[in-house]
Write a structure and sequence with these properties.
The strands form 2 sheets. The protein has a 5-stranded antiparallel sheet with strand order 6-3-2-1-7, with no helix packed on it. It has a two-stranded antiparallel ribbon with strand order 4-5. A hairpin with a 7-residue loop joins β2 and β3. The radius of gyration is 23 Å and the shape is globular. It is 28% helix and 24% strand. By secondary structure, the chain is α+β, with helices and mostly antiparallel strands. The protein starts with 5 loop residues before the first strand and ends with a helix. The chain has 2 helices and 7 strands.
């Protein structure tokens, strides 16, 4: 994943033992099956990477584990990257070309 990628939330569940911590850190939480856009990937000092999303903005908090203020990031494992066809017109043009070639070949076969 990289900034600008479209992702879908595949897991918005919060473990009961983490519920209080998550509710304290995140004013806005993610929703399963909703699409988001990756705004930034935070490496969190190499501890665990997290995603910031264009559609969700939470207030920065101080995290003892990384010893700094930052916006809380969502765990990457909660998302799956979506692979949209970014150039549909180009792909359609290639299909049309293949059809034209196939039709030409068909005429040659029929003439024999």
């Amino acid at each position: 994943m990289k900034p600008g990628d479209k992702v879908i939330c595949i897991n918005d569940k919060i473990d009961l033992d983490k519920n209080e911590e998550i509710r304290r850190d995140f004013e806005i939480w993610i929703t399963k099956d909703k699409e988001y856009t990756v705004r930034e990937i935070l490496d969190n000092n190499g501890i665990v990477p997290g995603l910031l999303l264009d559609e969700v903005h939470n207030f920065p908090k101080f995290f003892k584990l990384i010893n700094r203020f930052q916006e809380p990031a969502f765990a990457i494992w909660r998302f799956r990257k979506l692979n949209y066809n970014t150039k549909p017109a180009e792909a359609l043009s290639e299909i049309e070309e293949l059809v034209e070639v196939d039709a030409g070949e068909l005429l040659k076969v029929r003439e024999k």
